[in-house]
Amino acid sequence: MNTRRRSRGPKRTRNVIDDQPAFHQPRRTLPARALITDEDLERIHLASLRVLSDTGMDILHPTARQLFLDAGCTVDDDRVRFDPEMIAQCLSTAPSEFTLHGRTSGRDLQIGGDWIVYSSVASAPNYVSLDGDRRTGDRPGYQDFLKLGQMLNSVHLFGGYPVEPVDLHPSIRHLETAFDAHTLSDKPFHIYSLGRERNLDGIEMVRIARGIDHETLDREPSLTTIINASSPLRYDEPMLEGILQMSARNQVVIITPFTLAGAMAPITLAGALVQQNAEALVGIALTQLVRSGSPVIYGGFTSNVDMRSGSPAFGTPEYAKSAIVGGQLARRYGLPYRSSNVSASNAIDAQAGYESMFALWGAIEGGANFVMHGAGWMEGGLHASYEKMVIDADLLHMVNAFVQPLDLSEDALAVDAIANVGPAGHFFGEAHTQARYTSEFHGPMVSDWRNWETWTEAGSPDAKQRANGVAREILNGYRRPAIDDAIEAELRDFVDRRVSEGGVPTDF
User: Fold this and answer.
1) Has this prediction a pTM greater than 0.90?
2) Please, what are the domains in the chain?
3) Whole-number Å distance between alpha carbons of 435 and 92
């Protein structure tokens, strides 16, 4: 038996940070899918308006209730019933596209139209370390997720804390986390609407970080917040306060009802979508009553639950279908659309992969402009994962390539290259091939580039093991983005002053 091995040539030396597609914002050329007819979409719209005019919603903030009353709605204690014409008027002033400004101009993002952005995982209470330990969220873990998200080029922004650093006291957590976000990254950041002071502090810190005056900030959206309805049919005071503060300063509000069919929404997807749409329309309307033309995103997060346990299910056919219809509704209203990449799996396994792929496909097919939890979400949002963040980053690069147009230029048709190679040749050494390999080709970060014959030489690491190594390499090679010393000092002074004042109340 011949036991000689064929020479494979020199092993490819790779730097995973530099050997990924460059940071850019993808722009879809594939049209968004319609799952239901225009007539059926209109039925959902009209059913939502009936819910709002007949049943109404509880609005637990006096200022918000007064704004609705002044706009012609009926107010009875906390319950507000809405005039469909008022809803339509508010929808007409919301922008269909706008720019979200980063700390540096190279991080500016277009929101709406055919543009797509992906955020990191957000709001997980726990994370799994690279050593495999499940940990309660802390500041070192939070900082490492910021660093990883900064270095992964398919992550465009942070849609919240990748993991909640509970070792920071709630009264000052928003201050220290924003300082970390603005100094460890230059990508756009997010603030949580958990009380007026937190909103005001977050708005001021992004102004300082960008080095701009108040008038410029009011012209240039630079910060996002997510507003969830307390489904069914209620907006609580902190969420409404977030709309009041953020929209007043022309910052981005992402209205996202969290409707789980069978739990806090009807068990039928049609009914859950009617409720999602009704709740979303109220939040969107309020942004425009606060400030006409302020940026707002229509968010969908409708899924189903396991009726045996009550646990949320993600990455299901129901989730994907609702994501597609949610996109149809957003387009009907001329609004940017938010969806999510999610999974209920507890481990980095096949379930995590196929649920994320299914959820992401629903988002992309639905025409999502803003994909929350794009990288790193696990266990239905209960933990963040470094390995999953790396694997998802690869998946997002693949999606980006898929939504790009097919190159049909004369050179791409390759008639001359085919003639040069002729019958029975190969294209490896052809100039047409080499030019694209050296300038355009990027392989997946988690691939080890080895075939079956070479596995026995160094074991057979699976995707999780490879992603673990990639995450370690990226964190070891983290490059802190430049920030002006005076700006960093001003941020630090602001945080120290607010901490010395006691931060914010925690009894809202």
Assistant:
1) yes
2) 91-402 (3.20.20.480)
3) 49
